[in-house]
Amino acid sequence: MIWYTKNFDRLSEGAIVEAILNYGDFEDVRKMLAILGIRKAARIFKEQMGQGRVNYDPKISNYFRLYFEKYARHA
To answer: Which of 9, 12, 44, 58 is the most buried (most CB within 10 A)?
Structure first.
């Protein structure tokens, strides 16, 4: 999944969330949400979206913005 490093233990949660949301499939996202929890993943995503430079594909950022707005509030 995250091909640009060989040191997986040092990846931040933010880097993992970004890589999985941008490049993962549904099963990858499901596993990540099971590990981190939907609220934590939503918080990380929201913090990333608030930065000046965003690395998310526009379609991905729009989809997960809507997804987290709907489901993270009720989790």
So the answer is: 44
Do residues 2 and 9 touch, judged by C-beta distance below 8 A? no
Token pair belonging to 37:
């929890």
* C-alpha span between 75 and 73 (Å, rounded): 6
Under a CB-based contact definition with an 8 Å cutoff, are residues 72 and 38 in contact? yes
- State mean pLDDT over 59-64: 97
Distance CA 17, CA 29 (A): 9
> Measured over all CA atoms, what is the biggest interatomic distance in the chain, rounded to whole angstroms?
36
